[in-house]
Specification:
GO terms for molecular function: L-methionine:thioredoxin-disulfide S-oxidoreductase activity; peptide-methionine (S)-S-oxide reductase activity. It catalyses: L-methionyl-[protein] + [thioredoxin]-disulfide + H2O = L-methionyl-(S)-S-oxide-[protein] + [thioredoxin]-dithiol; [thioredoxin]-disulfide + L-methionine + H2O = L-methionine (S)-S-oxide + [thioredoxin]-dithiol. Belongs to the MsrA Met sulfoxide reductase family. By secondary structure, the chain is α+β, with helices and mostly antiparallel strands. The protein has four helices and six strands; from the N terminus they run βαβαβαβββα. It has a single domain, classed as Peptide methionine sulphoxide reductase MsrA (Peptide Methionine Sulfoxide Reductase, Chain A). The strands form two sheets. The chain has a four-stranded antiparallel β-sheet, covered by helices on one side. A two-stranded antiparallel sheet has the order 4-5. A hairpin with a 2-residue loop joins strand 4 and strand 5. The longest helix is centred in the middle third of the chain and has 10 residues. The N and C termini lie far apart (29 Å).
Length: 115
Amino acid sequence: MMAIATFAAGCFWGVELTFSKIPGVLSTQVGYMGGHVDSPSYEQVCTGETYHAEVVQVEFDPEQVAYEALLTTFWQCHNPTTKNRQGPDVGTQYRSAIFYHDESQRVLAEQSDLS
């Protein structure tokens, strides 16, 4: 059985590459999540007015890689203490967020941290 995890950790291209290299990750897909406009364009998201975050959706095999390992990668691949910024990228779309897909992910995400 496959599972889905979704993370916002700055510009999605670098984040996608990081997650795609993890054994047990079957596929990755970039997009926008967490805003209030259906199917926003890149230009709309860049205004900051839709309040979407750039995200990477990770399809993974939980028998090969645990969700907790993905959370560890999330915390290690960016600096969540810089609000709405990762390196040279600035804007609300670059904020740090974990979008959970079930109750188990919610609990594990809330228990996870930078350590």
